[in-house]
Design goal:
- The chain is mainly alpha-helical and about 575 residues long.
- The protein has three domains: about 200 residues, Clc chloride channel; about 210 residues, Clc chloride channel (Orthogonal Bundle); about 120 residues, CBS-domain (Roll), CATH 3.10.580.
- The protein has 24 helices and five strands.
- A three-stranded mixed beta sheet has the order 1-2-3. The chain has a two-stranded antiparallel sheet with strand order 4-5.
- β1, α21 and β2 form a beta-alpha-beta unit.
- α8 crosses α9.
- The longest helix is centred in the N-terminal third of the chain and has 34 residues.
- The protein is elongated and about 95 Å long.
- About 50% of the residues are buried.
Length: about 575
Amino acid sequence: MKALASSLYALAARARLAIRANATARVAVAIPVGALAGACVVAMTEVAEIAHVAIYGIPFDERLSAQARISFFAALAALCAGGLVLGLVDAWRRRRRAEPSVDPVEANALHGGRLSLRDSLLVVFQTVLSNGVGASVGLEAGYAQIGSALASRVGLALRLRREDLRTLVGCGAAGAMAAAFGAPLTGAFYAFELVIGAYSLGNAAPVLSAAVAGRLMVHVLGGAPYSIEAPPVAPLGVAQHVALIVLGLASALLGVAAMRSAAVLERLVRASPLPVWGRPVVGGVLLAALATLTPQVLGAGHGALSLDIPRSMPATVLIGLIGLKLTSSLASLAFGFRGGLFFASLFVGGLLGKLYAIAVAYAAPGLALDSTACLFAGMATLGTTIVGGPLTMAFLVLESSSDMRVAGPVLAACIASQLTVRAIFGYSFSTWRLHLRGEDISGAQDVGWLRTLIVARLMDAKPRTMPADATLAAFRLAHPLGSAHFVALVDPQGRYSGLVSTPEAHASGEETDPASALARLADAALRPEQNIRDAMDAFQTNESEVLAVADGKGLLVGTLSEAYAARRYAAAVDRAVRGVLGGA
């Protein structure tokens, strides 16, 4: 047994070294990760669709949201029962004081790619249950979660370094999203833009390979779960490009309003007297009531989008569907159902595009704006606003339409949408929800190292000290020139009272003068928990090359020099940059 363990350990060590040094080895690991993620996508989709068939009695080859009508009692019973299960799980986790589950974006931004497989399986269960009973959420968040979590587990088993682990997590997400839409480029750029936070030659090969592997796996198992089909797009000129950019601005405003509304609605639900376990049940009642108006509010909306694309619909109907779908999706999340808004944003964006085409045809009939182009642009721009990732959405449109003529104007509209969101809001839906939890990140770029590089780990824990009531004579005797550049003064209880420059103490003042007369920066101590960026800002603000470190009670615990902090900061930034660029 010991020999087997030693052999496995040696094999893992060799694999780890090969992955670090060889791009081919990274691809060799990424391919099975992407394929496994694709298999998980198929399994999750099948479970949710079987639930729809069993609960609502729909044909197996039809989508829930594409039904003309559904049984109110079936919807009420399913949504309330599923909501009760989700509420009890949430109440149980609160009693255990469990931390919120980490998603792939947070994992790569703050935790170096570390994801809990157990927590991720719970997220998958909650997501499949929510979608399976008909809540207005998609499975895409669960797809990315399980693909990334499996990749993280593989990377941790191989003991990969931080940069390689983050890339492998992106490979898992890429394989999952490529499998979901049958779109490898969409999956790859989902990973680049949303999970890894950067594109480089170093991470391109493994991520693209994982995306292709995920797409091939789902093809072998029965085809992509979701596909978007629409008529071909007519040629677009400069005026049509400008019109689609204006649509991007409208999508940005609608998306920001939706995200802000989600936060307000969640606060209202949390402030209500409803018990934690009962909130999803009340949400289920609301969703069942909305479903009596139209079943298109149920599920993510794949069937509804396919149903609505070829139909000619009046503006009033489109406005009603947009309002109902946004209300049902935001209410689902606020009341405790679990899932994502990826496809819901595509569905609502498509409806917005059709509405925009009607408005332009009425206001400027000579523009001859193609309605299919508006449909694709609406999907992509609202997806960019809520999910993030303009290239991801542009490639989704390109791979769905197989029409290069639409890619350029849609990408321009996506960029306009993203710039508008950054100017007036600054977050996508995933990062906005993290912001509401107190996490100040704007994407998956690796900033977790800042949280580990804190003052407590950098400071000199045994600083030169002197009693605050000591005379200059005593100070000069205890600290001759050349012994220390700065000395910290402390009171009898050990509280910090300021810094004294040793050369200054030897150059000025009478021997009977108190050393405290030369003390400065008594109110500028660092705290042990501050990160290195805060420390560098403090050095610049106080114009000092050394600062004391004091705890919450004011007790001196160390000192930190600007030169040492700057060296450590520069080294950490260099490692982060080399990780982004794919360096060793």
